[in-house]
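Continuing the series of single-chain predictions for the mutant panel. This is the parent chain; the variants come on the following pages.
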Amino acid sequence: MRAVGYFRERPDEGPLAEQSGVFLEFCRINGYEAAAVFLDASQTPDDVPGFRQMVEFLRNQRQRGFILVAVPSLASLGKGLTESARRYFQLSSLGVRVVMMDGGVDLGAGLLKKWKAARKNGRLGERVRAAMQKKAVKGEALGRPPYGYRVGPRRRLQVVPEEGSVVRYLFRLYLKDGLGIRRIARRLNEEGLRTRRGWHWSMVTVRDLLRNRAYLGTYSRFGVRVPASHPPLISPEDFQRVQERLDQRRPKSTVRETSRFLLSGLAYCGYCGNKMIGVTRRQRWQRRTDGEVRTAVYRYYQCESRTNRSLCDYHTRRAEALEEEVRGELLNGRIEPVAVTEVEEMRVEAQGKQLRDKLRRLDRRLEQYLDAAVTGRIDEERFRFLGLEVASEQLATEEALAERQRQAQQQATETERRQHRREALARCREQWGQLTFPERYELLRRLLERVVVRDDGVEVALRP
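Parent structure:
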């Protein structure tokens, strides 16, 4: 088995060179092959280039045999316990084990124990939490009320008639009419119904609504569950049947093998303006002639509005063909770069803020799962599934934020930008066949601002 070492500069764990020596000794004793070592000297959560390099390394090593990540301790993954938990699950979501060099114990085994001790010691805002719990015990609504309710007198939830009707309708479509989540979202959108914020319904919003126990009349917040605190919208029998059906359709908690796409975040639908997302389909069939079982993997880009909301039409393009068409447009020499404007700079800044806010929300969600696990509201298997789910989303968000930060930091002169563009185009033309996926991915982001995709062609805009 091959092992990777990861270290952060910490006063209690010695110099980085010394930690690297401990890792090599760990590999020797346990018979591991030392594949690589990654280091981070900064204590700032966002400044972890070594961790990002390790993530990319692990992605590229999946097909080359078993691999694990060894660290001195859980604290080595992050400055605080929340960051450490986030990094642990991010690595686990890549399909690798994360162990301590002292004994080779999986870090997940001690994560919940440390979190429980931290809660007991009051390091997670216990006094504030206790005050909130007192209000929750009384059934007082805290934060934004769920769809279908508003906060009424004495901070009790009251039914909003129009929204309550939509909730009942949605549950009926799922339970009585047998519609799936995607078809329900499409039905609501086609009938002109909107979320509270006036947005279209998506698979995520429909699923979250079907899972929400608030519609039983039960108020849940800060580890407190108060039955019959407000008028229910769904009967307990119907709610339970819905949960059972959702659980049957949910895939088992296995680490998914993700397929990466070169144009992710760059390609947009030319008909509705939404993003084109990469989709992988695996098909298996049996030939009639000889009974041989065959399998095939199909990769393509599809309009996100169609995929998640059943809006727009069925605009799809085969991944390899679209990527090669975009490369051809890059090399034909007719594309002019877009001009940098103040509006564009503000857009990049606003996107960065949105991504940082999203990371904070994801951290809070992970903390809620940790709280639920240590208090017994969810079992360890469910906790691990939810932790991996959040970690995958966090990893994608961090990578998007890093890209936005690179955009914001680009201060090169127009002459330098032209030179960089010429060099990138030369690599795209002359070295494409020798480049790895990460190198191609980064190269396209240096060159492209946006790709508008239509059924019969593409429009490509170069970065300024």
